[in-house]
Amino acid sequence: MSSSGKSITVIGSGLIGRSWAMVFSSGGYRVRIYDNQPGLAAKAIAEIRKQMGELEEASMLRGELSSSDQLALLSSHDDLQQALEGAFFVQESVFEDLAAKQSVFESVERLVGSEVILSSSTSCLLPSNIFSAVQTPNRCIISHPVNPPYYVRLVELVPHPHTLGTVMDATHALMTQVGQCPVRLNKEIEGFALNRVQYAIIAESWRLVEEGVISVRDIDLVMSEGLGMRYAFIGPMETMHLNAPAGLEDYLQRYRAGMRKVLGSTGPVPQFSGEAAERITKEMCELIPGQQEHLSARRERRDQLLMGLARLKKEQP
Ligand SMILES: NC(=O)C1=CN([C@@H]2O[C@H](COP(=O)(O)OP(=O)(O)OC[C@H]3O[C@@H](n4cnc5c(N)ncnc54)[C@H](O)[C@@H]3O)[C@@H](O)[C@H]2O)C=CC1
Ligand SMILES: O=C(O)[C@@H](O)C(=O)[C@H](O)[C@@H](O)CO
Question: Is 240 touching ligand 1 by the criterion CB < 6 Å?
Fold first, then answer.
């Protein structure tokens, strides 16, 4: 898929809209950014200019083009029709509010051809709800990024019940071409995949802290120094596979009872409020300033871990 001369419109110039603009322009696409708050899209470009300069300075700018060439692809617009001119793909990134998103897509559909792909960045809203007022939902899709999208490249592609396979394929190709890592969901489900897993982890972590089983600091270490060190490089399926030299049945034989006992005792979803919330916030404010020194040690740990995982794979039959 060539980007030359092709245009993408980003609607909403906040944290995610800016990130999308940087990602798409890194792939050589012309990007028109629109925000309904006059002047905000222009401010977003000024912020992007600053970020791209810093990234280029640190040799971390994505794509083949220089920062000035990428910036030349960006334009800000306070008029929606102007922003949509020539777009083959529209990425909505307005507030996580169903009515706001429905209204955006109603307006957009009146201004673009039926072949233009309409995509939402929503974290959790279902496509069948977001696009409920769209006359031609077969060109609609969710492209859910993960914060910060410029560095965390996963994009969940979630179809509306009527989304065409060609629209899923074209969006997958676009996201791959701009360097993201798209995954395909075969149907819509609350929370998609990433947030279903993320919220399950958050719920159990919250419960263990709220019930005084473990401290705020230590539950985060369970993730950052334990599961996260593995999950940064291999997923849960590969983890099971590598943890069972005698095969998955062997793994399940060993852990099935334990998994059932643990999952059976996880109980109702926590309130996510009250004393635990205050305690977590207080402790995080005390902990975070000291975390910077960890980051510098990460690279060495990462290389050691990759070596360890490579050895695990080698030992596989
Ligand atoms: N913040 C995060 O970590 C992530 C957010 N998302 C999703 O991305 C979307 C955007 O999130 P953020 O960038 O964090 O929000 P944000 O609040 O930073 O930015 C939203 C922007 O949209 C603009 N806006 C609101 N209504 C508009 C309209 N009708 N037309 C044009 N512009 C409009 C606002 O002026 C604002 O600049 C949400 O759906 C969110 O759930 C997805 C993944 C991660
Ligand atoms: O965590 C993320 O970056 C994304 O999964 C999101 O969609 C939102 O931030 C979400 O987690 C907020 O609940």
Answer: no
